[in-house]
Each structure stands twice: as structure tokens, then as C-alpha cells.
């Protein structure tokens, strides 16, 4: 005889527990996704800013190449250099902010959700992704800063060269004095023009000297700003070299494994021939003895 028992309450309790646990699982990713989305949006903004700075540096290099002795583009070059330096300083600060957002994102993800294996793997994957994004942006920013530094150094050399060439073109010896009274007035006018030209050249050289000093100061600031990023770039190069070595070793192991498989296949093939011969001999003896037994 079967005894019936009402277990509807247990079923309802189990259903409520499943519903509440599912709701908690749905709320946790929404909270963590906001932090992750903030990090991703900020990283995308930093990437766009780096691209914009690279375009400015290319424009600066183009203006510097097109500059000649009598085509002064110092004002344009100084404006672009100042804009790029300000943007690089902002990007340097943005990288610190990005590090803070990465820490907050990981902390929020650890604070929500369970401690199961899937959650732990998701946290490790997210942490690895964030670190890769930051390292990539740092590498791009370091490369951009190095390009800007090289451009400023080249522009500084160009300014010195143009100043020397202009000095050779504009400087001249004292004009020959004429004893005739007819040329006295003309000689005085020439001397006045030469004095005015000398004052203009002096002012020009002072401007070039100030421009060179500004560029050299910018080079020093950029060098100090990106010394850490340069170190990071060298470390990444070492990592890449180690990865190449590991890939070569893995390729050697794969080739060795392939050779072992081919050798094993050849052994199996030779054993297969031997087994077929044994079965053929047995079949022959069976047929032979069966023939004589039957007869």
C-alpha cells in the first residue's frame, strides 16, 4: 500500500530559492558591467586621443620639413609643439586614471557574485584583459612620445642650420666709402639700411635662440615624462623575445612528436604485415587439415 504525502510546500520553497538565486546572479553582472563599461569607454577615449596626438606630430613634422630660411614657420611650430606637449601630459594623467578604474572594476567584480570556479576564471580573464589594454596603450603612448621627442630634436637642428644660413646670406662687409660728395648721401642711406638690417637680424637670432631653448626644454620634459613608459616598452620587448623562444621550443616539440608518431605508424604497419602473415599461415593449416579430415 502506497502512502501519499503532500510535498507541495517543499516544491514551492525550492522554486522560490531558485528564483532568488537567479535574480542575484542577474543583478551582479549588471553592477559589474557598469564598471567594466566605464573602463572600456575611458580606454577607447585614451586610444582616440593618442591617435589625435599622432596626427598633430605628423603635421608638426610636415611643417618643419617645409620650413626654409626665409619662410619662417616658428609660430606655427611653437603652437603645435605646445599643443602636443599639453595633450601628452593629459594622456599621462589619463593613464593613471585608467589604472584606478581598472582597480575599481576588479574590486567591484570580486565584491559581487559567488566564489565558484566559473566566477574565478571570469575574474582572471577580466584582469588579464584590463592589463593587456593598459600595457598596449602605454606602449602606444611611449612610442608617440618618442616620435615627438625625435621631431623636436630635428626641429632644433633645423632652426640652428637656418639661422647660420641666414647669417651667411645677410651678413656682408662694410661698404666702400666714396670721396666724392655726390655719393655721400647715398652712402649714408646704405649705412642706415645696414644698421636697420643688423638690428633685424639680431632680433631674428634672439627669436631663434629662444625657440631652440623652448624646444630643448620640451625635449627634456618629454624625456622625463616617458622614461617609465620607455622602460615598459623594453620590458615588453623582452617578453616578446621570450615568447618567440617559447614558440620555437614548442615548434621543435611538435616536430619531435610528429616524428615519433610517424615512427609509431611505421612500427604498426610492420606489425600489421606480420599479423597478416600469421593469420595466413593459420588459415592455410586449417584448410589443409580440414581437407584431409573431411576426406
UniProtKB/TrEMBL annotation:
Under the cellular component aspect of Gene Ontology, which terms does the record hold?
Answer: Golgi membrane; SNARE complex
Would the keyword Aminoacyl-tRNA synthetase turn up in this protein's UniProt record? no
What GO molecular function annotation could you give as one example from this UniProt entry? SNARE binding
Q: Which UniProt keywords apply?
A: Coiled coil, Membrane, Transmembrane, Transmembrane helix, Transport
Secreted recorded as keyword: no
Q: How does it sit in the membrane?
A: Single-pass type IV membrane protein
Supply the name of the protein: Syntaxin 5
Upper lineage is: Eukaryota, Discoba, Euglenozoa, Kinetoplastea, Metakinetoplastina
Which residue spans traverse the membrane? 274-294
The T-SNARE coiled-coil homology domain is annotated at 202-264
A Gene Ontology BP annotation from the UniProt entry: vesicle fusion
Which Pfam families does the record match to this protein? Answer: SNARE
Q: Where in or outside the cell?
A: Membrane
- Give the protein family: Belongs to the syntaxin family.
What InterPro entries has UniProt attached to this entry?
SNARE (IPR010989), Syntaxin (IPR045242), T_SNARE_dom (IPR000727)
Query: Which CDD domains is this protein grouped with?
Result: SNARE_syntaxin5
Amino acid at each position: 500500500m502506497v502512502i501519499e504525502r503532500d510535498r507541495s510546500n517543499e516544491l514551492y520553497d525550492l522554486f522560490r530559492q531558485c528564483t532568488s538565486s537567479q535574480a542575484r546572479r542577474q543583478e551582479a553582472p549588471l553592477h559589474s558591467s557598469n564598471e567594466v563599461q566605464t573602463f572600456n569607454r575611458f580606454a577607447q577615449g585614451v586610444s582616440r586621443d593618442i591617435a589625435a596626438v599622432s596626427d598633430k606630430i605628423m603635421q608638426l613634422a610636415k611643417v618643419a620639413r617645409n620650413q626654409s630660411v626665409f619662410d619662417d614657420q616658428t609660430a606655427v611650430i611653437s603652437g603645435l609643439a605646445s599643443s602636443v606637449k599639453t595633450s601628452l601630459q593629459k594622456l599621462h594623467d589619463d593613464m593613471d586614471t585608467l589604472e584606478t578604474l581598472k582597480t575599481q572594476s576588479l574590486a567591484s567584480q570580486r565584491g559581487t557574485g559567488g566564489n565558484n570556479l566559473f566566477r574565478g576564471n571570469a575574474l582572471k580573464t577580466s584582469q588579464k584583459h584590463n592589463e593587456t589594454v593598459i600595457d598596449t596603450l602605454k606602449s602606444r603612448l611611449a612610442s608617440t612620445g618618442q616620435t615627438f621627442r625625435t621631431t623636436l630634436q630635428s626641429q632644433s637642428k633645423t632652426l640652428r642650420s637656418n639661422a647660420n644660413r641666414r647669417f651667411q646670406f645677410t651678413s656682408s662687409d662694410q661698404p666702400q666709402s666714396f670721396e666724392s660728395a655726390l655719393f655721400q648721401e647715398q652712402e649714408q642711406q646704405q649705412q642706415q639700411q645696414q644698421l636697420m638690417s643688423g638690428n633685424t637680424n639680431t632680433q631674428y637670432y634672439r627669436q631663434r635662440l629662444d625657440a631652440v631653448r623652448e624646444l630643448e626644454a620640451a625635449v627634456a620634459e618629454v624625456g622625463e615624462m616617458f622614461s617609465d613608459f620607455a622602460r615598459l616598452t623594453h620590458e615588453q620587448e623582452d617578453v616578446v623575445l621570450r615568447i618567440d623562444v617559447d614558440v620555437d621550443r614548442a615548434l621543435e616539440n611538435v616536430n619531435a612528436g610528429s616524428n615519433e608518431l610517424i615512427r609509431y605508424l611505421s612500427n604498426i604497419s610492420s606489425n600489421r604485415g606480420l599479423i597478416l602473415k600469421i593469420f595466413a599461415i593459420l588459415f592455410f593449416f586449417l584448410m589443409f587439415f580440414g581437407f584431409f579430415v573431411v576426406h
